[in-house]
């Protein structure tokens, strides 16, 4: 069993300290008014990062909008595990139309609300990485370009999980999926492919773009709240580890998300109107092996004789993120 | 008020009178004039409150309409041909979700080879998608059917496709009687949705349904279309009462009562067919016409009833089920319990090929003389086809078919290189 040391009552952090924090800083989830928008009883796997991320994000959006929220959902794990006929986990008005059109359905909802004069009702569209970076990309880019009043949330588990773990354009290099198997000469997903959707979103110069992980749920809540302060197109990209697809223990979801951030493989930042405005700094950048090793999707990198070259290339990607986003302060770097 | 306007302008004005709330569109000939006209009206503030959304694809157009309709807005879009295919997944979805969207299809051929001219392949490719499909014979009917479409759609909570022939109707200037806003308002009450995304009463729309209930959901879609068979004539009667003219309904009979041969068709070609029939009637030939206004739901009983007395039925259609024959013809045949060999299919006008009275007369005379083949391709250039088949027989690298045909025809551009 994995073991995560927790130090209680750390001042200046949100680790456990809801009870020690001033009211205003407490998490939405800790409040009795939380809406349980994605209610219990759904069919997600144990330790599903996507279920966790969606629950926090949508509850935060509900809190930020005074419960005036409508959601459009793309096909994918989140949709399938939340609405098995005749049950639904959603406590909010929710529509699932197709795999590739959540952003456009969001646009339609927003347009209908506008003509009805319902300015206070806000719209969230959400989907997995496949529904966002691949098949739904056209609709998403269109929604961004028109600056429609929709918050789009991508729950990125780095593959098509609902169909059984196939590669998407968010799958990281060297990862094993069922369509990027490390067999023969192949070493998993190729380098040099894939899309960086947060940067693409920024290139549309939309009012707000943010990344987050389920390791920093308070940060995710804050970003959803911040997003709701803007009108127009907004994008939040949440890294949500998937125990089934990544091959880690179901108790290690948060840990994997944290390692993704701390190795700098997943930079956490905010941007407004195309400019980065805030970066979650790393106290210390961890080597990528720390993140890769516990996941069976990268196991082939560590089988004798090993793939030091590939690990070095992944490390280079992390280092590039450190450079690009200024993830590590020089002073702390020197420590 | 009588007006001499382009078909697209007439339809745009009819849509405007229906007080749409969300219009989304992606351009494709020959639909463009309709949405351009609507865009101008929205921009000028004439339709307020109404949103006109320039989307990035037809798939998005239908998806925006889905979101808008599910949020209680009256939603409209228009497309044709490749555009209809590009949105196909969302077309099925709108029907499956039971959302009363109205869409104009400015009927156009489907490529390859790419062709912008009129036939019915686009709309008929979606015949099983769960939408109601109405076909306009002329611009007056196109205008009228759109008004009826919103009424039907919202009554049934099902989407309705109004099909009008690309260019032949969309771009033709004809006289139309444009209703008043008061007339339309009295016929079409504000949209009262059956399901709506509303924070005050949250529902989940579009949940996953497995084998335990999927059959029932599909059956309900079928049952609703059966209801439509009753509602469509009822709302056409109501239309006549309010607007003072007959329009819509399931089928139109023309000189069928004592006819030995009845010609069945959809859309604007009915005009040419009626002219031809009039000529033949003048000569004492017993021939009549049955126009199908409502293609989905298929009005089997009405068709059976209208065709009962005829010795021969000629289905003239602008569509082809490749590898099988006629689509409309097949539906007509299926409407008889007796002998389907009374039904002859004539495929005509594909990709905008002119359908002339002379050619029609030829096949109708063959039908009267009992010498018409079960399946005929009107005015097919047999020699051209044979040349291509021969080339393919003798030559492995026979080249692109369309280019080869154009070369054979001596079309100038194809001679380059
Ligand atoms: C048009 C279409 N193509 C393919 C599918 C099959 N499909 C359903 S969910 C899914 C994977 C979803 O992946 P992602 O968006 O990353 O969400 P996840 O399940 O990983 O959360 C796929 C490929 C579909 N439903 N529709
Ligand atoms: S497969 Fe992954 S994303 Fe899907 S429910 Fe299981 S843990 Fe969640
Ligand atoms: Mg995924």
Descriptive notes:
The complex is a heterodimer of chains A (335) and B (417). Chain A is globular. The longest helix of chain A is centred in the last third of the chain and has 18 residues, at 308-325. Chain A has helices at residues 49-64, 77-82, 102-115, 129-134, 137-146, 197-203, 217-227, 243-247, 253-262, 288-292, 308-325, 330-334, and strands at 69-73, 94-96, 122-128, 151-156, 208-213, 234-239, 269-272, 275-279. Chain A is built from 12 helices and 8 strands. Helices cover 34% and strands 13% of the residues of chain A. Chain A has one domain: Thiamin diphosphate (ThDP)-binding fold, Pyr/PP domains (Rossmann fold). By secondary structure, chain A is an alpha/beta fold. In chain A, strands 2-1-3-4-6-5-7-8 form an 8-stranded mixed sheet, sandwiched between helices. With 417 residues, chain B is an alpha/beta fold. Chain B has 3 domains: 2-243, Thiamin diphosphate (ThDP)-binding fold, Pyr/PP domains (Rossmann fold), CATH 3.40.50.970; 251-377, Rossmann fold (3-Layer(aba) Sandwich); 382-416, no CATH class. Chain B contains 16 helices and 16 strands. In chain B, the strands form 3 sheets. Chain B has a 7-stranded mixed sheet, with helices on both faces. Chain B has a 6-stranded mixed sheet with strand order 10-12-11-14-15-16, sandwiched between helices. A two-stranded antiparallel sheet of chain B has the order 1-8. Chain B is globular, with a radius of gyration of 22 Å. The model of chain B has no long low-confidence stretch (mean pLDDT 96). The chains are: A alpha/beta (335), B alpha/beta (417). The interface between A and B is large, with 45 and 44 residues. β2 (94-96) of chain A pairs parallel with β9 of chain B. Bound molecules: thiamine diphosphate, iron/sulfur cluster (SF4) and magnesium ion. Iron/sulfur cluster (SF4) binds next to α2 and α8 of chain A. Magnesium ion (MG) is lined by residues 128-130, 157, 159-161 of chain A.
């Amino acid at each position: 069993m994995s073991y995560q040391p927790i130090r209680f009552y750390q001042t200046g952090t949100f680790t456990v300290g809801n009870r020690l924090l001033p009211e205003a800083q407490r998490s939405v989830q800790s409040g009795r008014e939380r809406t349980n928008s994605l209610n219990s009883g759904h069919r997600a796997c144990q330790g599903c990062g996507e279920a966790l991320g969606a629950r926090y994000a949508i509850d935060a959006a509900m809190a930020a909008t005074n419960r005036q929220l409508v959601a459009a959902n793309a096909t994918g794990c989140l949709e399938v595990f939340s609405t098995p006929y005749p049950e639904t986990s959603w406590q909010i008005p929710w529509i699932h139309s197709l795999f590739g059109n959540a952003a456009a359905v969001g646009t339609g909802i927003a347009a209908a609300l506008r003509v009805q004069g319902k300015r206070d009702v806000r719209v969230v569209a959400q989907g997995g990485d496949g529904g966002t970076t691949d098949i739904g990309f056209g609709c998403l880019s269109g929604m961004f370009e028109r600056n429609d009043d929709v918050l789009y949330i991508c729950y990125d588990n780095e593959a098509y999980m609902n169909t059984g773990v196939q590669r998407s354009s968010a799958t990281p290099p060297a990862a094993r999926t069922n369509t990027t198997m490390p067999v023969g000469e192949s070493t998993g997903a190729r380098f040099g492919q894939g899309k960086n959707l947060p940067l693409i979103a920024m290139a549309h110069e939309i009012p707000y773009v943010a990344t987050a992980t389920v390791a920093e749920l308070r940060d995710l809540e804050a970003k959803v709240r911040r997003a709701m302060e803007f009108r127009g197109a907004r994008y939040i990209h949440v890294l949500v580890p998937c125990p089934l697809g990544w091959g880690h223990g179901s108790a290690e979801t948060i840990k994997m998300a944290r390692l993704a951030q701390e190795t700098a493989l997943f930079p956490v930042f905010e941007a407004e109107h195309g400019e980065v405005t805030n970066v979650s700094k790393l106290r210390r950048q961890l080597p990528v092996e720390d993140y890769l090793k516990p996941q069976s999707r990268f196991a082939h990198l560590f089988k004798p004789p090993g793939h030091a070259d590939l690990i070095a290339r992944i490390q280079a990607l992390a280092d590039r993120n450190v450079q690009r986003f200024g993830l590590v302060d020089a002073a702390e770097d020197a420590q | 008020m009588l007006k001499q306007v382009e078909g697209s302008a007439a339809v745009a004005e009819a849509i405007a009178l229906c007080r749409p709330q969300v219009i989304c569109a992606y351009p494709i000939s020959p639909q463009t004039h309709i949405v351009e006209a609507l865009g101008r009206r929205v921009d000028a503030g004439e339709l307020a409150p109404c949103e006109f959304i320039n989307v990035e694809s037809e798939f998005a157009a239908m998806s925006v309409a889905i979101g808008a309709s599910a949020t209680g807005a009256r939603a409209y879009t228009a497309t044709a041909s490749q555009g209809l295919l590009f949105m196909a997944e969302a077309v099925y979805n709108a029907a499956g979700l039971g959302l009363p969207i109205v869409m104009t299809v400015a009927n156009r051929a489907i490529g390859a080879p790419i062709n912008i001219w009129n036939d019915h392949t686009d709309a008929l490719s979606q015949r099983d998608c769960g939408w109601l499909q109405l076909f306009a014979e002329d611009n007056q009917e196109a205008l009228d059917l759109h008004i009826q479409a919103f009424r039907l759609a919202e009554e049934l909570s099902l989407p309705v496709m109004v099909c009008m022939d690309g260019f032949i109707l969309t771009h033709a200037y004809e006289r139309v009687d444009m209703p008043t806003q008061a007339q339309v308002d009295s016929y079409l009450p504000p949209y009262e949705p059956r399901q709506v995304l509303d924070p005050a009463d949250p529902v989940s729309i579009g949940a996953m349904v497995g084998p335990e209930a999927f059959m029932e959901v599909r059956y309900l879609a079928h049952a609703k279309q059966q209801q439509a068979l009753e509602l469509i004539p009822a709302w056409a009667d109501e239309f006549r009462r309010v607007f003072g003219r007959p329009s819509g309904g399931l089928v139109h009979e023309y000189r069928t009562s004592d006819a030995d041969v009845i010609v069945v068709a959809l859309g604007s070609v009915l005009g040419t067919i009626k002219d031809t029939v009039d000529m033949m009637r003048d000569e004492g030939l017993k021939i009549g016409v049955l126009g199908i206004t409502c293609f989905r739901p298929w009005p089997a009983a009405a068709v059976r009833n209208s065709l009962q007395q005829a010795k021969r039925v000629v289905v003239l259609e602008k569509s082809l089920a490749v590898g099988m024959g006629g689509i409309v013809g097949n539906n007509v045949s299926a409407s008889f319990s007796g002998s389907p060999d009374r039904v002859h299919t004539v495929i005509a006008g594909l990709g905008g090929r002119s359908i002339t009275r002379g050619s029609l007369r030829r096949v109708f005379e063959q039908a009267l003389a009992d010498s018409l083949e079960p399946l005929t391709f009107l005015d097919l250039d047999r020699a051209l086809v044979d040349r291509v088949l021969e080339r393919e027989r003798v030559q492995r690298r026979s080249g692109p078919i369309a280019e080869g045909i154009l070369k054979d025809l001596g079309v100038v551009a194809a001679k380059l290189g």
